[in-house]
Structures are given as C-alpha cells and as structure tokens.
Amino acid sequence: MCEDEEFVARSYIRKLQLEGYTVIHAHNGEEALTKLKSEKPDVVILDLLMPLKGGFEVLEQLKKEDDPEILKTPIIVASNLGQKSDIDESKRLGAVDFLIKSNTSLKDLAAKVKQYLPTNAS
Questions:
Q1: SS3 of 16, please?
Q2: Alpha-carbon span 121 to 50, nearest angstrom
Q3: CATH (residue range 6-114)
Q4: Which of 12, 16, 29, 59 could make a disulfide contact with 93, Cβ separation 3.0–4.6 Å?
Q5: What was the pLDDT predicted at 118?
Q6: Where do the structural domains in the chain lie, given as residue ranges?
C-alpha cells in the first residue's frame, strides 16, 4: 500500500490486518517502487498525490518493468482525485480499479482487495 497520509495509512493497515492480510506500507512513490520490486506484493493500493513520485509516475514506471511478476500485480488506485480524466488515465496506465477515498468505506476497500487477490494469497 502506498499512502502518504498517516491517518489514512493507519486506518487501511488496521482494517486489512484485521482481515488477515500482511500489509507493506510505502510513504511515497519512490519507496513504493522499491518495495514493489523487492517484496512482490499480491495487490497494490496506490494513492495518486504523494511526495517524491506521484501515483501516475509510479504507474508509468511499472509499465516499463520487464519482471512479469511485477507487471501482473493488480494495482488499485485509491485517491481523492475523482475526475473522469484521472480515472481514465489511471486505467490507461495499468490500474485495475479506481476508488475515491472519501466515498469508500474500509469494508469496501477490504472487499476490493479480496476481489483482486490470487485465490491462495492472504
């Protein structure tokens, strides 16, 4: 999960851990790219507005990866940007889904993660 707002990050982490998931947290886009390559998560939750590298930059860099495991990782964008252009650009760059944080409950977030997890992962 890549989220720079501490309150939001703690809320997401707590909910996902209660659901039985192991959560790897990155505070910015550069850290997210590093952790994605080293940790190989099953699903990524990615904010768009972050320090150092934003979510669009992260998505663009991931498209250039030659590691098939990274390329197949489902990325769910969770942002308070919600214009159609932001959603369309996220999906064009490879995101499988887009959640507007202010409109998404923690329960819905966990359900969305479960939807994109491989059947044997948790």
A1: helix
A2: 28
A3: 3.40.50.2300
A4: 59
A5: 79
A6: 6-114
